[in-house]
Amino acid sequence: MSEVKKSGFATAGLVVGIVGISLSFIPVVNNAAFVLGVLAVVFSMVAFVKKASIGKSVAAVILGILAIIITIVMQNAFVKAVDDAVDNISSSLDNMTGDNTDEIMDKYLEVTFGEFEVKKDTFLTETQLTVKIKNKSNENKSFSVGVEAVDENGTRIETDTVYVDSLGAGQTQSENMFTLLTEEKREKLKNAEFRVYEASMY
To answer: What is this structure's pTM?
Structure first.
């Protein structure tokens, strides 16, 4: 009767070790696998002490330790994958909201300003600032570029935004900005400095 009890620990260790190693590859569920791995080692240690079912005990120890190791490795990989996904989502949101303007301008976007023009005829006065938008990346990108006109003191006079959709890698597209202005602002923009204050990327 006592031999059956001794063998039972080894058998139990072997069973929980097999279940533990089976579950150790599944994220979240492998929390249980870690516990089962520990139990497998404990049960097999009891069987070793009682000197019963040595073969099963050795197998249970190996399975238990493997279940623990695989669980730790898989959980670390899962946590890293989640962290990377969160970082990517956060970075994408920052790219879309303009919070990454400096990085976008440095790595992905080049903006070149032409001269601010005022064209008058009998009935209409037209204004425009030609802006060249270049996609510096090697992927298709869409951009939203906010441009401000500032006076010699750095005070903002006016802003405008241009949208460029699906610009290919290395491609450049020209757009006109500041086309609808009051007479007062037209005069001020003749001597203004133009600069990007916000850039978004999609």
So the answer is: 0.61
